[in-house]
Amino acid sequence: MISEVGSKIILTIITYWSWWWEVPNQQDKFARTVLTVLVPSSLIFVWYKWRLSSSRKAHLPPGPYGLPVIGYLPFLSSNLHEKFTEIAHKYGPIFSLQLGSKLHVVVNSMDLAKAVAREQDNTFANRNPPITGLIITYGGMDLVWSNNNTHWRNMRKLLASQVLSNANLNASQSLRTHEVRKAVNEVYNKIGTKIDINKTAFDTELNVVTNMLWGCSKSDEGGDFGEMLEGFQEVESKIIELIGKPNISDFIPFLSRFDLQGMNKEMQRQLEQVERIFNYIIDRRIKLKSSKVDETYEGDGRKDFLEILLDLKDQKNDPESFNIIHIKALLINIVVAATDTTSTMAEWVMAEILNNPDVMKKVQDELTEVIGVNSIVEESHFPKLRYLDAVIKETFRLHPPLPFLVHRCPDESCKVGGYTIPKGTIVYINVWAIQRDPENWTNPLEFKPERFLNQKWDYNGNNFKFLPFGSGRRICPGLPLGEKMLVYILASLLHSFEWSLPKDEEFELSDEFGFVTKKRKPLIAIPSQRLSDASLYF
Ligand code: HEM
After folding, report:
1. Which of 39, 221, 244, 419 is surrounded by the most beta carbons within 10 Å?
2. Angle at 139 between CA 136 and CA 145, to 5 degrees
């Protein structure tokens, strides 16, 4: 992926400089050859000396040098989390890389993660979004890519108080139950056949989130619109892929107008797809509002999030500060942030359990003891499912879906680990490396859920050995819903069915780096009935 970036750049350079070989003067071939070799190598030498002395003077973190203009870009491999961890082993827990015109710093230890996300949380609370991220959020009008400003604070407060508060989560319990039961029923109807675990979890989470946001889900909608939502997972995967993939336009801004990899255009296409869905939903709601028909979710009389956002827009006198674009950016953000992470994690947990039969047995024994094979899973059971909780946490440790969280960017020059981090640097917290660091974990590569049973662990980002949802003011605001849905989906799938792997498919646990890092090969598993009575599946 990254070597593709390098080769595109080199190709561009070759194209622009090919005139050198076409000049009419053919008399002194030797001189031209000497110049061709000498000029670039002298330039590289001078550049290298200059970089060395300027980074020493600036006291930047150590790190490997790359080439002029493109920096270290051509030397990065596609599995970036592994490459960064390898560089950290050579250069230490904090290192810097010049990628094109931008300085990147990667922190790889719990102490330095704490220095960034706790001790200097406010300084590091900006984002510096990639161009593809800006395209899909109308220029960063959302929550994920917004800088630490009033708009971001207001959006976060609104999401926390109107969607993800304890009161709202309690009120929407029946909605989660409805969707999880529907998923169990769909799997039951396909007993003995191959099930794509990620797709099952994705659809369930999508239905829950869209119901909470605008009061209806994929399964409630028919016709063209139902079909549009049916293809949403593909659109979303493409969005996540384009956000995580290195883009020359980000690293060498003067090349951005050429969009050499076509990524910006591709993201524009995804935005058009997403817009069709959101325009439909919003237009329909505005019409309903003007005809004074109240649309609320679950018939409990409370307004859904879209209704609250539209009310807020109408109340604001200043369309600059809150308008339809802000609403769409926020909705896109929440749907994308919630679904891909949850389904990716559900898939990883099931894969680890299927890979460890003794863990599967312990999880199912616990489910039988707490719930019994004559009953179905309910949210009230969750606090008693301690072993399943430990299994989920151990999976988060080995497979954090966002291995570098979302990068941060200091709004002024500051110090981390004694080194200078200039204003505007892109800073990654390498959670993937921290959660596999032998300094923090005994036998870190072993899958051992018991390590989460013996001590009190949570996802709140206070223990810097374990940060799958991030930490500090930018910590994931969807944590309470994400955690609930994961436990609900997994407990229900594991309690309702026995699972086996298809004999004709190779099973492996390797990952593929991306903004959300997924299983390289989708997990396919075959269910069989586990509960005592078929009526428990309806
Ligand atoms: C398994 C589920 C999930 C995981 C692992 C996860 C993980 C993360 C991580 C690592 C971050 C970046 C934190 C940082 O930069 O320090 C984040 C940010 C975010 N997440 Fe989640 N997330 C999950 C579910 C959700 C859900 C259900 C929602 C919404 C309902 C959500 C909405 C967001 C938003 C809006 C942000 C950006 C926050 C900001 O920049 O201020 N996430 N998430």
Report:
1. 244
2. 75
**Which of these, 141, 414, 401, lies nearest to 278 by C-alpha position?**
141
- DSSP class per residue in 197-236: HHHHHHHHHHHHHHHHHHS--GGG--HHHHHHHHTHHHHH
Alpha carbon distance 213, 228 (integer Å):
17
pLDDT tens, position by position, 77-92 = 889 999 999 999 999 9
Q: Ligand 1 mean position to 353 CA, how many Å?
A: 24
Q: Is 402 in the pocket of ligand 1 (CB under 6 A)?
A: yes
Answer whether residue 434 is part of any domain.
Answer: yes
- How many Å apart are CA 82 and CA 404, to the nearest integer? 11
Q: Is 125 in the pocket of ligand 1 (CB under 6 A)?
A: no
Specify the pTM. Answer: 0.90
Distance of CA 418 to the CA centre of its chain: 30
Q: Is 431 in the pocket of ligand 1 (CB under 6 A)?
A: no
Residue 79 is assigned to a structural domain of this protein: no
Is 86 among the domain residues? Answer: no
Say yes or no: CB of residue 129 within 6 Å of ligand 1. no
Q: Whose CA is nearest to atom 17 of ligand 1?
A: 476
Does ligand 1 have an atom closer than 6 angstroms to the CB of 330? no
208 lies in a domain?
Answer: yes
Question: What CATH number is associated with residue 446?
Answer: 1.10.630.10
Best of 341, 462, 515 for a ligand 1 pocket test (most atoms within 8 Å of beta carbon): 341
Q: Cα separation of 9 and 74, whole Å?
A: 9
List the domain range (segments joined by +) for residue 443. Answer: 131-293+302-537
Does residue 156 line the site of ligand 1, with CB under 6 A? yes
Q: Is 414 annotated as a binding residue?
A: no
Counted domains in the chain:
1
